[in-house]
């Protein structure tokens, strides 16, 4: 793989991080698009993600990824311009290519240089575009003529950018007539604008530039946190650019703009930054107090900070203890009193530092949930089942270390749910249920814990069958389980090797591996329980601590031995006198 020699290790690292994020956006977005065909904002997000990957991969010289995302971008452009609908076949084509993007990224990370044939995937994307255009009510693509005025969508994007405090500019760029690389230079201009902010509209379109159908000029509407002089300088620095004109966009232009198109492949209200300074001579100066202050933090740096805070927390307790001993021994001493005040202040600062570091470690559980719609869709198609999967509470935050370890248990539960909990449409109709089954995944905070609920309206778990299976496999004795209720028998599904499935599939078996699920959750200080009703469905309730980074403990001394018990394991404390023993 021959990469751009001008790209250094830091740029490659940023490229991989951004690509990972954009692929995740596409993964979630494509599934949602299939459900909500008319969601133009979602389509623009997915399109822009593909466009950004295409540009950045081309910049680093990763040609296969650039070519594949270009084909995906073309199909997504047809979707957002209503030339086709997000059918199952179209969605499958996009998801197949997305899987290939993940594979390409992993090969890139591993340094694998074996050839990867993207030809069949590109052909599949083009084939779906052709088929859908033919059967679409919208008609052929060439019927969509770019008009010469700003449409309502672009105007809304302009207003959104201005409301967010961004500067909006009209930009015109001219490439030298003697240039043999006019299309390349224009694409460099577009990519530079995308790095600096957001292109709201442009003519010629990106597709026209890439197909070598553009001339030597580009006009665009641009929004970003940069002043006109800096923007002019950045564009003028591109080779063979002979003329750059940057003018602040004004409100009256919405009535008279006759050079800009209504759409040209670059829409959306996402911007790379926030409010910059307005050019002098405008209606007052605008400050940058609305700027979003955020940085990427390496996980190792975050863990090191956490270790340092843990040491401070230990010293905080020692300082507090020493302060009390000194106050008792030297009561009324001014130096001891001053030391006590300083000690109290240090303890307060350490507490604040601990709280802030813990907030930095918190991540929305949606980073895990976002991967599940694709999983459920693929499993449902494989099992020929119809599943309505809905997620709520994605904004609920959880410690990063717990986020990393809860993914696998949830995947296992979802696999069991789709494979053995949910029935096929024919069986559901016979049972008087709608063919479309419902699977719900939710999360919410309950004081110092997170509650995760996974429920389905499937066949439920037969507690008696679970009990009989456990007895037959010698996991329990008949005498030990005879007095158990139906609900208590269901909990036996967590024993190793228990399965209620009539046949084991490649996906899962209800109960197989459930002991590992419970063990993983309990290792995090959490718990899991089941509620089920035959013919009605099953619900799993998972209770997890917000964090396992710092655990409060109770110091206990017995003779000369001092032990620490985690507070989560302490049920009750009693003051016992010598006479009571």
Please give a structural write-up.
This protein is α+β, with helices and mostly antiparallel strands and 581 residues long. The chain contains 20 helices and 13 strands. The strands form four sheets. It has a five-stranded mixed sheet with strand order 6-8-9-11-10, covered by helices on one side. The chain has a four-stranded antiparallel sheet with strand order 2-3-1-4, sandwiched between helices. A hairpin with a 3-residue loop joins strand 10 (527-533) and strand 11. It is flat, with a radius of gyration of 30 Å. The termini are far apart.
Summarize the structure.
With 581 residues, the chain is α+β, with helices and mostly antiparallel strands.
Layout of strands and helices, then pairs:
Blueprint: H1 9-35, H2 40-60, H3 63-80, H4 88-110, H5 119-135, H6 152-163, E1 167-175, H7 182-196, E2 197-203, H8 206-210, E3 217-224, H9 228-236, E4 241-248, H10 253-256, H11 299-329, H12 334-361, E5 362-364, H13 366-369, H14 372-383, E6 387-392, E7 397-399, H15 400-421, H16 425-430, E8 437-446, E9 449-456, H17 463-472, H18 478-481, H19 486-490, H20 514-523, E10 527-533, E11 537-545, E12 553-558, E13 561-566
Parallel strand pairs: 6-8
Antiparallel strand pairs: 1-3, 1-4, 2-3, 5-7, 8-9, 9-11, 10-11, 12-13
Helix pairs in contact: 1-2, 1-4, 2-3, 3-4, 3-5, 4-5, 11-12, 14-15, 15-20
The geometry reads as: flat
Distance between the termini: 76 Å
Number of helices: 20
Which structural category fits the helices and strands?
alpha+beta
Overall residue-averaged pLDDT value: 79
For the largest beta-sheet, the strand count, sense and barrel status come to:
5 strands, mixed
Fraction in helix: 40-55%
Quantity of strands, as a count: 13
Indicate the proportion of strand residues.
15-25%
Unreliable segments of 5+ consecutive residues: 133-149, 252-292, 508-512
């Amino acid at each position: 793989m021959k990469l751009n020699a001008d790209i250094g290790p830091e740029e490659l690292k940023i490229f991989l991080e951004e690509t990972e994020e954009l692929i995740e956006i596409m993964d979630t977005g494509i599934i949602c698009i299939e459900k909500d065909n008319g969601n133009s904002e979602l389509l623009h997000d997915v399109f822009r993600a593909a466009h950004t990957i295409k540009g950045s991969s081309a910049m680093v010289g990763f040609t296969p990824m650039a070519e594949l995302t270009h084909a995906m971008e073309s199909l997504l452009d047809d979707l957002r311009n209503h030339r086709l609908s997000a059918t199952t076949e179209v969605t499958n084509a996009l998801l197949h290519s997305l899987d290939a993007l993940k594979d390409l990224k992993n090969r890139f990370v591993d340094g694998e240089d074996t050839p990867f044939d993207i030809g069949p995937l590109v052909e599949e994307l083009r084939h779906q575009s052709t088929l859908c255009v033919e059967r679409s009510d919208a008609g052929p693509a060439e019927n969509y003529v770019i008009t010469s005025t700003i449409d309502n969508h672009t105007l809304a994007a302009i207003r959104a950018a201005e409301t967010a405090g961004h500067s909006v500019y009209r930009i015109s760029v001219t490439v030298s007539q003697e240039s043999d690389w006019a299309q390349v230079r224009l694409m460099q201009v577009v990519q530079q604008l995308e790095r600096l902010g957001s292109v709201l509209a442009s003519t010629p379109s990106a597709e026209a530039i890439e197909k070598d159908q553009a001339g030597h000029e580009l006009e665009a509407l641009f929004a970003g946190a940069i002043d006109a002089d800096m923007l002019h300088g950045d564009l003028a620095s591109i080779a063979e650019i002979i003329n750059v004109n940057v003018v602040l966009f004004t409100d009256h232009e919405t009535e008279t703009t006759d050079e800009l198109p209504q759409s040209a492949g670059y829409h959306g209200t996402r911007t790379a930054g926030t409010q910059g300074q307005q050019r002098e001579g405008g209606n007052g100066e605008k400050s940058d107090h609305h700027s979003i202050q955020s940085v990427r933090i390496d996980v190792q740096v975050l863990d090191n900070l956490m270790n340092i805070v843990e040491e401070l927390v230990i010293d905080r307790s020692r300082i507090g203890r020493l302060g009390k001993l000194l106050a008792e021994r030297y009561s009324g001493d001014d130096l001891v009193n001053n030391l006590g005040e300083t000690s109290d202040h240090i303890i307060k600062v350490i507490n604040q530092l601990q709280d802030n570091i813990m907030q930095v470690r918190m991540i929305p559980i949606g980073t895990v949930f976002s991967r599940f719609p694709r999983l459920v869709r693929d499993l449902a198609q494989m099992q020929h089942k119809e599943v309505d999967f809905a997620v709520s509470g994605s904004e609920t935050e959880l410690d990063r270390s717990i986020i990393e370890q809860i993914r696998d248990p949830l995947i296992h539960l979802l696999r069991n749910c789709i494979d053995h909990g949910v029935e096929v449409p024919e069986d559901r109709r016979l049972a008087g249920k709608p063919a479309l089954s419902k699977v719900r995944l939710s999360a919410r905070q309950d004081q110092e814990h997170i509650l995760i609920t996974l429920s389905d309206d499937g066949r439920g778990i037969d507690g008696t069958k679970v009990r009989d299976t456990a007895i037959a496999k010698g996991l329990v004795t008949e005498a030990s389980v005879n007095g158990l209720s139906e609900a208590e028998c269901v909990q036996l599904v967590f024993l190793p090797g228990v399965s209620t499935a009539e046949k084991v599939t490649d996906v899962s078996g209800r109960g197989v591996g459930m002991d590992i699920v419970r063990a993983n959750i309990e290792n995090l200080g959490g718990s899991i329980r089941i509620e089920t009703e035959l013919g009605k469905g099953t619900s799993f309730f998972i209770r997890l601590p917000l964090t396992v980074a710092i655990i409060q403990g109770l110091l206990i001394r017995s003779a000369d031995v001092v032990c620490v018990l985690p507070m989560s394991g302490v049920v009750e404390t009693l003051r016992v006198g010598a006479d009571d023993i």
